[in-house]
Amino acid sequence: MAVITLTSDYGLKDHYVAALKAALHRELAAPQIVDVTHQVEAFNIIEAAFILRNAYHHFPTGSIHLICVDEEALPGKPHLVMHQNGHYFIAADNAVLSLLAPDKKVDAMVAVDFRNSPDLISARDIFARVAAHLARGGSLDLLGNATENYKQAAIQKPVVRENDRFLIGSVIYIDRFGNLVTNLHQRQVNEVAKGRKFVINLIRNRTIKKVLAHYYEEKHDGNLIAIYNAEGYLELAIFKSGSDTLGGARELLGMNLGDQINIEFL
Prior knowledge:
- By secondary structure, the protein is an alpha+beta fold.
- The protein has two domains: about 140 residues, 3-Layer(aba) Sandwich (Rossmann fold), CATH 3.40.50; about 110 residues, Bacterial fluorinating enzyme like (Elongation Factor Tu (Ef-tu), domain 3).
- About 20% of the residues lie in helices and about 30% in strands.
- The protein has five helices and 16 strands.
- The strands form two sheets. Strands 8, 9, 10, 11, 12, 13, 14, 15 and 16 form a nine-stranded mixed β-sheet that branches. The chain has a seven-stranded mixed β-sheet with strand order 2-1-3-5-4-6-7, sandwiched between helices.
- A hairpin with a 4-residue loop joins strand 14 and strand 15.
- Helix 1 runs parallel beside helix 3.
- The chain is elongated, with a radius of gyration of 21 Å.
């Protein structure tokens, strides 16, 4: 049976996650459920997409991914099921689906139509019914009407300025350690650098002169470092931060989502 993953902004204090899993257990005898995260910032589809985008491709082809962030259906905001890159994604039409794999073709998409199932009221129950249908090998087109129209959004892209002297990016995600993930990909940095050395300019005149090949290349706790993460994006971190005594890059640099990162080529 297909793996079913859960990504939500429900948190862990309340009953919402348990209720969602209970709905899946009502629909399936022994669902294979994996929690991606339930700590997405409330209604933050960009954060939800970033986390799931970096996780879903590790799962087997045919996996089903529930995105329970801003998930209630409203007039003009139906529930959608997207088949893309060998995976199924279930979400409301709030633009989150456009952020998951913008470089990949959408193979199929349907707007869910359960008007003949009045017992399904909440998005939780609808998502569970859809996921169970797919997990049993059910056809996508039995869930609703095919559509090609869905809301679009885009993550801000880096900008090259002054005849390739500067590459301007921004912070797009902050993890639990306070590490700052940027939208600057190693591939783009290398293309603009053309072999030149560079410095990374941060706010308050902080600079970094080297991108480490590996996190543990640094030897001193508390030092500010830059690395390319597993997905190839430039990440700023405080070495061995996140403990009770040593804050992360977000806290010590005073940086937040959207703050600018300036790479200057020498």
